[in-house]
Amino acid sequence: MLASCHAKTKRARARTDQMQMRYKVDLLIVDELGYLSFSRSGAELLFQVFADRYERRSILITSNLPFGEWGQVFQGERMTAALLDRFTHRCHIFEMNGERLPIQGVQQPSEGEESDEGKRSS
After folding, report:
1. What is the mean pLDDT of the chain?
2. Nearest to 50 by CA among 64, 63, 60
3. How many separate domains does the chain show?
4. Range of the domain at 57
5. How far apart (Å, rounded) are the C-alpha atoms in residues 12 and 40?
6. Is the pTM of this model over 0.70?
7. DSSP string over 72-112
8. Centroid of chain to Cα 83
9. Is 73 domain-assigned?
10. CB 80, CB 70: distance < 8 Å
11. What is the rounded distance in angstroms from the CA atom of residue 28 to the CA atom of residue 84?
């Protein structure tokens, strides 16, 4: 039992050390926010990281989701609204709409030919 408590304490300390490191870096980069879904506790933890960095350190976020769909990521409208208020208070938003650049080694469909995505949705 003592060994089990020690192991739990050690894991908790490691998580605390990781969290402290996230607060110390000058720029936290979150790439593809919304690509993977979070559990409620995971969304709350990410919210806490963002909230703790608010007006203290920089955050760069990339996402394919418009702000209106962020409620799905953070599992609730109130938490999402609070986050978006913080993010948009002092920020620069770069919205990039246009054709995606081809990835090297991936063959692009020729004109008139359906892409794999088009074939799957048919």
Report:
1. 76
2. 60
3. 1
4. 35-92
5. 19
6. no
7. HHTTSHHHHHHHHHHHHHS-------SPPPPPTTPPPPPTT
8. 12
9. yes
10. yes
11. 17
